[in-house]
Amino acid sequence: MTAQKLKYKHGKAFKVLFRIVQLFLLGVFRLLYRLSIKCVDKVPREGKYIVCSNHISYLDPVVIGASIPRIIYFMAKRELFSLMFISNLVTFFNAFPVNRDSFDRKPIERSLKVLQNGNLLGLFPEGSRSVDGIIREGKRGVGLLSILSGAKIIPVAISGTNNIIQKPHKRIFFPKIKLIIGDIIDTEKIIAENSRKDAASIIVSETMESIKRLHALII
């Protein structure tokens, strides 16, 4: 078996298959977890955007990917790519590896290529899951990617996914999952009016504040 390569453009067949998978997952989440999605119409049908969300569960990328009716790319922890079958599967569905323990240019280069090809890039600005559900400060990478790519930001907040598996219980729970999409953050204006260093910090700050406001609406 050869390693699957990340594709930045997809043909009609893939788009149809991707949409079928999205609708299937959407049905599962609505049936089992009463998934509620608000303001999905705020996501433009075309164009490059960075979708930024709080992160409380490994299931978050799947829920967000099923909820937004566009193809979306996500960074995923490097460990997922250690087995060929899993690696090929997640790569086929537009995930690419990131090493959280050291600086690596490849995820940045791939992220920029995703955006340069007019796609959606999904990021979790906090950098890792919040085990207690509290939204923490975002990392500068989101601001830098927005500056380098010229992509605006779509804030998203999610709740409920962290309650599906609750320690120390050895069973799966079925909480209500909620997702809400906010207004696009006009990073172009921020970049034009500030130095690169200040712009990156302001973009991260505005992104996290927007996510927090959205989260307050759904908890």
Task: Please describe the structure with a list of short key phrases separated by commas or semicolons.
219 residues; Glycerol-3-phosphate (1)-acyltransferase; 41% helix; 7-stranded mixed beta sheet; single chain; alpha/beta; 7 strands
**Could you say which structural class the secondary elements and strand pairing correspond to?**
alpha/beta
The overall number of domains is 1
Q: Do you know the CATH topology?
A: Glycerol-3-phosphate (1)-acyltransferase
Number of E-state strands: 7
The CATH class:
Alpha Beta
- What Rg is obtained from the alpha carbons, in whole angstroms? 17 Å
Number of helices: 7
Order of helices and strands: HEEHEHEHEHEEHH
| Helical proportion, percent range | 40-55%
Strand-residue fraction?
15-25%
Terminus-to-terminus distance: 45 Å
Q: What ranges have pLDDT less than 50 throughout 5 or more consecutive residues?
A: none
> What is the CATH superfamily label?
Glycerol-3-phosphate (1)-acyltransferase
Give the overall form. globular
Please give the order of strands in the largest beta sheet.
1-7-6-2-5-3-4
Mean pLDDT equals 94
- Could you describe the largest sheet, including whether it forms a barrel? 7 strands, mixed
Word description of this protein:
With 219 residues, this protein is an alpha/beta fold. The chain has a single domain (12-218), classed as 3-Layer(aba) Sandwich (Glycerol-3-phosphate (1)-acyltransferase), CATH 3.40.1130. The chain is 41% helix and 16% strand. The protein is built from 7 helices and 7 strands. The chain has helices spanning 12-33, 60-67, 84-92, 105-116, 141-149, 187-193, 196-218, and strands at 36-38, 49-53, 72-77, 95-98, 120-123, 152-159, 178-181. A 7-stranded mixed sheet has the order 1-7-6-2-5-3-4, with helices on both faces. Helix 5 (141-149) crosses helix 7 and helix 6 (187-193) packs antiparallel against helix 7. The model has no long low-confidence stretch (mean pLDDT 94).
